[in-house]
Amino acid sequence: MEKKESKNIFALVGRNISYSFSRQYFNTKFEKENLEANEYVNFDIQDISELPKKIKKHKKTLKGMNVTIPYKLDVFNYLDKFDKKALKVGAVNTIKITKKGKLKGFNTDIYGFKKSLKPLLKKGHSKALILGTGGASKAVAYVLEELNIKYKFVSRKPEGKKQIAYEDISKDIVDAYKVIINCTPLGTYPNVENCPNIPYQHLTLEHLLYDLIYNPEQTTFLKKGAEKGAIVKNGYEMLEKQAEKAWEIWNS
Q1: What predicted TM-score, i.e. pTM, was given to this entire model?
Q2: CATH number where 188 lies
Q3: How far apart are CA 115 and CA 93, in angstroms?
Q4: How far apart are the C-alpha atoms of 23 and 18, rounded to whole Å?
Q5: Among 15, 200, 205, 210, which one is least packed by beta carbons within 10 Å?
Q6: In a 3-state reduction of DSSP, which class is residue 103?
Q7: Does residue 243 belong to any structural domain of this protein?
């Protein structure tokens, strides 16, 4: 136990995160790159109010944290500083602990999503539907704005002009919005048969379907797109790239 606590600790903050990509990814990275002085753990908490206690427990060794569902928005209340992009997006997925012990929030989902989406874009990809309105969808919208791609959010309870309901997705909308990005958890393991309720029959070779989910490798959402000849992409590369960006932030 003493040996463990002498290591630099990095952690993922979330709820029910035993499946965690981050823990496996970083611990494998530490092993491969001879960074044995570091360890990545899960802060699996049922409520965000438990976070200060976790931080206090590892105060001397904690160097940085990632944040996942459902705390990307709520974690703002526990931070001392914010990066401009994280503030604009309204979601934090990376926390740096400064030398003075202050917590600064960043959003590396922006970087990861942009790097993995950009090579797939073609001439007709000028409009996008964002399925879901949670923390990750805000980073997706930010990137689409940077790439000059117009977008609408699709929600079960739409609010305002930027949002539409799933039942409002007509053939005309599918024809106009050639990029469709799933930011919902629908289809995540073990409920792999689930998928967002959109009219898949109207998809074509010109469509691009991107799913932030990475487990399973091909969700039902992506499978239905592939059947229509659409370009499909899961969220694994995005996760890799945002993880490396987080590592860069922690060590800068």
Answers
A1: 0.91
A2: 3.40.50.720
A3: 17
A4: 9
A5: 205
A6: strand
A7: no
Instruction: Identify the three-state secondary structure at position 125.
Output: coil
Q: Pick the catalytic residue from 56, 59, 63, 72.
A: 72
Q: Is 72 designated active site? A: yes
Rounded to whole angstroms, the Cα distance separating 18 from 15 reads 9
CATH of the domain at 61: 3.40.50.10860
Residues 99 and 202 in one domain: no
pLDDT in tens, the chain (252 residues): 444 457 999 999 999 998 788 999 999 999 999 999 999 999 999 999 999 999 999 999 999 999 998 899 999 999 999 999 999 999 999 999 998 999 999 999 999 999 999 999 999 999 999 999 987 899 999 999 999 999 999 999 999 889 999 999 999 999 999 999 999 999 998 999 999 999 999 999 999 999 999 999 999 999 999 999 999 999 999 999 999 999 999 999
For residue 18 the two structure tokens come to: 């035993």
Which residues are CB-neighbours of 96 under 8 A, at least 6 positions away?
64, 103, 104, 106, 249, 250, 252
Do residues 93 and 131 share a domain?
Answer: no
- Whose tokens are 């002009």? That residue is 161
What is the rounded distance in angstroms from the CA atom of residue 91 to the CA atom of residue 68?
10
**Residue 164 CA: distances (Å) to CA of 58, 121, 155, 158, 167:** 44, 24, 6, 5, 8
How open is the CA angle 51-47-88, to the nearest 5 degrees? 75
